[in-house]
Write a structure and sequence with these properties.
This protein has 437 residues and is mainly β. It has a single domain, classed as Methylamine Dehydrogenase, Chain H (7 Propeller). Helix content is 0%, strand content 38%. Strands 13, 14, 15, 16 and 17 form a five-stranded antiparallel beta sheet that branches.
Length: 437
Amino acid sequence: MPMEGTMRKSFQLPGWLCLPAIGAGVVLALTAHGASATPYTYTTLHAFCRVANCADGQHPMAGLLIDAAGDLYGTTRDGGKYGYGLVFKLIPNADKTKYTEHILKSFCAQAGCPEGSHPAAELIMDADGNLYGTALGGGKYGNGVAFKMRPVANGWSYAAIHSFCHDTNCTDGRFPDTGFTYAGQISGVPWDGSSPLFATTNSGGAYNQGSVYELSPNGSGWTYQVIHSFSSGLFAGPVILTSSGNLFGVTREGGKYGDGTLYRLAAGTWSEATLHNFCAETNCTDGYYPYGRLAVDAAGNLFGTASQGGSGQLAAGVAFEYTPGSGYSVIYNFCSRQDCGDGSNPAAGMIMDAGGNLLGTTTVGGKREDGGTAFMLSHGSGWTEQVLHSFCGNNGTCKGGTGLGSPLVLDQSGNLFGTIMNDGAYGDGGSVFELSP
């Protein structure tokens, strides 16, 4: 369990090279759910490390992409033919009772990994079915790549479209650990293939504290530019592009109190405005260490999670709302129930369905061996939480996985899909799961 609210501990950076490995994706809600949700049925769709040396993938760190046919796409940070991660596709049978994995790309086929290595962020798809993503390492300069994959007759073609850290000080950023956002993404449409893509890097930039960049096709290639270098915030999460053209995001650390920020980059000028400095309240009852992509409703209100702080029994994180007219407020304190049965330490942000409900995960807590939860926040006279599923912990007496840290995705039937970084039927390779109402 997390430490008491007034007791602060250093945040441990998970993942490869101690970089934040928690990814998050934007999923648009396509169906509404009622406020009287009951526990969902959990199904493991695929467990990784089924073959020698985990050639089928290991440690999925990011959320999934779901296409119109119901196929699921994702990445694993490790494993694959060469041990440096892969891109996979899960194709369901006709009645969606079984999913078959297809490996689309294994990273680092060449010495030095010039194509990139260790993908740890969600993918996006354009209107032609091409995939785009980022990888934390490798590339021409060894500090990560942005890539494109195109379906061809005998599989998928792959190209690194930008290698990070092109100069001595990496002013263009390094270690891209988040996926792309684009105009229209929050409404669920594929990328149009021509408008700019936006994402963040974990390090580099003018102040070596990370950057927000823009990547645009220019006909013969790609144009890359840094539109913001962080000077106060540290460890930026994914950004979201709203219909106003503004970018919004959080940084997990830094800011006035050192515990993270909620910020806006204004359309066109990309000037930064800090909307909230976390841990502004005594004992951090407003939360601290936010991460994950934000959700936004039709009125432009923002919703997200902070993995620590709040007013629950163990100050184990909050869900928050930022309203342009009213500012920042906590809408739910995790670990508000006995033994943290409602979950604790949310670390992947939330998605919003068409009914305005917020859906997310917690990394620990719940009623099954402290393995975390999938939850729904519903808004009536106030916000109320319902646990949709409690995941298993590490003691091996139940199956279901541990190591939650990626966002959920939602299909048109209201089924939820996600990944588990560790555990699974074949060891600690991780898995892909479905939660069905």
